[in-house]
Amino acid sequence: MPPPSFSTHRTASMKTALRFLAIAFALAGARAAHAAYPDRPITMIVPFSAGAGTDLTARTVAQCMEGQIKGASIVVTNRPGASGDIGLSALATAAPDGYTLGIVNTPGVVSIPIERQTRYTVASFDFLGAVADAPGTISVHADSGIQTIQDLVRAAKAKPGAITVGTQGVGSAGHIALLLLEQSAGIELTPVPFQGAAPARTALLGKVIDTTMANVDEAVSFRNGSPWRVLGVMSDARSSVAAELPTFKEAGYDIVAGSMRGFAGPKGMPREVVKTLSDAIRTCAADPVFLDRAQKSFLPVRYLPPQEYLSSLRRLDASLRELWKTKPWNQ
User: Fold this and answer.
1) Which residues form the signal peptide (predicted)?
2) Average pLDDT of adjacent 10-residue blocks, the chain of 331 residues
3) How far is CA 273 from CA 36, 113, 146, 226, 231, in A?
């Protein structure tokens, strides 16, 4: 068999070189694509109205993230309605490319899929980190004979169903906190739904209702200059924004409820993008501007990294599914 010619060697060498060049170009292209993120504006969905606490948190963090992610421009878009369901649906069904994010609140992201058919569950999102956790409270008018958590329980046991409690609507954080209190204390209360904490505040101060649920940031701000008494907070430990308030656990009722605020994107975002976004959120949770605004609005800051955040939501999901079996909140 004759030896291969010079031209054969040259052709093989050229093919090998071209193959290496193709691989090099592909790798360079991949690196360039990664380095280019973000190359267009990022949308941040807020499932509630502009001007509310969740909206202000989202806008403060979005502004900080623009400074943390090179080339980022974040457009905050409000998609209110159906207790957050409209905005959460839009977030869950968006393209998982890192260009649609959203702020999500508990219990809605967990409770809504339990009570009705939705386009999402907790498993539909890539969670990027939580930044705040406002425990629930229950408050009375300062003139009320109910001065402690124990007073409330005794009064409710004496007259089942007689005590009215303002909530922010069926399935809201306040409504679910009420159900947990009923379950833990063995009492019966009468929920009165309002379109938010502010209308419930007006009703309480006007003595139209006996008590009202509110997250701690709302309750503490409401009592300033008003005849308003907060009975306690529904958290594992006393709140950093109102350390003088007892917990329900101290009164003998193991209740943890309220509203956690965090950020997520649709499930399936590229790993590098998730890291970029979650790193920025971690930094922004400690940003002086965010901390100052949180302090002024009595919002308890609590950063949770992505995996801890997801684990917390899974525990809440299991807890609420158990609650649903005995106290479905849509009835």
Assistant:
1) 1-35
2) 53 54 50 71 94 88 95 95 92 98 96 94 97 95 96 97 93 92 95 89 96 93 92 94 95 93 98 97 96 92 97 94 91 70
3) 11, 27, 52, 47, 44
